[in-house]
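I am still learning, so can you show me any protein sequence you like together with the matching structure tokens, please?
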Amino acid sequence: MPTATLSSREVARRLKTHPRQVARLVVRGLLIPAYQAPGPRGAYLFDAAEVDRFLAEHADGDAA
């Protein structure tokens, strides 16, 4: 069954942080987007399972 797709804003809410921090996590390779829209400011979309994985690995809050 496919997982839900989340925007950077939705991921930020789950992580209790700012959407810019979500982009920083992507650049650092800590959070992997499922898709990035074309263009220099392309929006990221994330699988909910990837966000859940990130939350499980960083449950102590060390990366967000």
